[in-house]
Amino acid sequence: MTAPANFESLLIIVPAWNEEGAIASVVREIHQHLPGTPVLVIDDYSSDGTIAAARAAGARVLPLPHHLGLGGCVQAGYKLAWELGYNYVIRVDGDGQHDPADIPRVYECLRTTGCEMVIGSRFVTENGSRTGAVRSLGIRFFRMVLRPILGKPVHDPTSGFVGVNRRALDVFRGSFPLDYPEIEALVVLQRRRFRFEEVPCRMRPRTTGRSSITAFKSLYYVVHVLLGVFVNVLKYDSRFHRAPRGKGNGD
Amino acid sequence: MDRLLNVTTVLSVILLIVVLVSVRRAHIRPEYSVSWLVAAVAMLILSRAHPLLEAVRDLTGLPDSPLTLFLPAGGLFVIMFFRYSVILSHLRDDNIALAQRVAILEYHLQNLKNHENQEA
């Protein structure tokens, strides 16, 4: 795949919580594939050496003062990206499962299609990515739930490999799902009649640490996200349009 | 029946004292103690004033006095829990927004310091 000549106004954000073992290689790989593109690691109050490892690898670090969870962590990155004037933000997970070689593809799609969100999807084409049986079942279930809500099929609604443009940043800095943001974020965008695309990406096995998702958490995830989806569908608009304090409508 | 009302009286008094002491020691902010105090006083009055309890029972058509005492109290507690859930949700939203703001301000501050150091 041919990379664009430059990655104008692009920020890569990497939410990380206790990813000391993987974060440095993630940052180095991103720099290797996108030289000169700033990488912002948002540290969700790690108790290990994530911050030091990220800084040593050449990333900028946004350390949160206490643990906020994935949604709060990602939203902090979106808020900072908005303030710094970036037009495109691509999120890559800090555990090394997303391949930075796919970032140029996501960026190109964001730029050329003008859609608000691009999802790096494991299932658009068969690319050898493997998921567990329970997770696979969950993904199928949410595809089915989201199809009528979004008005088009989404192959990989739980993917955390996501690129957004400035219009989506403007929405997400004011309203972003906090606990399990991927699926609900799609519904948030749909309410604004924003568009999303999926591009094929590869998911690698985790190299360090272990997933925090257990069988019980998977069930909780399904119930929580399902509730979140329907709450977002029914959400009262004035709360939705609430601008961040002291910023007017944000421009 | 009388024993139940006496137990309710004792529980109401304990609740009243605990809430008042907590407010005095600033463990609960006064605005959040009001609903607890109202619930405790209402249970205390109903458990001591038998004619009032009977009147409420006749008015509501409930089959017996204990139910007349505990159904409104239960309803009140449900409303209170809902109110506190709303308050907690707002507090959580505000807390997250504040934490993000602090982190972003510290980031800008650190950048300014680095910039100054480079210039110096």
List keywords for this structure.
heterodimer, A: 251 residues, Spore Coat Polysaccharide Biosynthesis Protein SpsA, Chain A, 7-stranded mixed β-sheet, 9 helices, 43% helix, disordered N terminus, disordered C terminus, B: 120 residues, 90% helix, elongated
Explain this structure to me?
With 251 residues, chain A is an alpha/beta fold. Chain A contains 9 helices and 7 strands, in the order βαβαβαβαβαβααβαα. A 7-stranded mixed β-sheet of chain A has the order 3-2-1-4-6-5-7, with helices on both faces. In chain A, helix 1 runs parallel beside helix 2, helix 3 packs across helix 6 (166-174) and helix 5 (133-150) runs parallel beside helix 8 (215-234). Chain A starts with 9 loop residues before the first strand and ends in an 11-residue tail after the last helix. Residues 1-5 and 238-251 of chain A have low confidence and may be disordered. Chain B is built from 4 helices and no strands. Chain B is mainly alpha-helical and 120 residues long. Helices cover 90% and strands 0% of the residues of chain B. Chain B has one domain. In chain B, helix 2 (30-48) runs antiparallel to helix 4 (65-119). The mean pLDDT of chain B is 90. Chain B is elongated, with a radius of gyration of 24 Å. Classes of the chains: A alpha/beta (251), B mainly alpha (120). The A-B interface holds A 60, 62-66, 68, 72, 75-76, 79-80, 83, 178, 244-245 and B 96-97, 99-100, 102-104, 106-107.
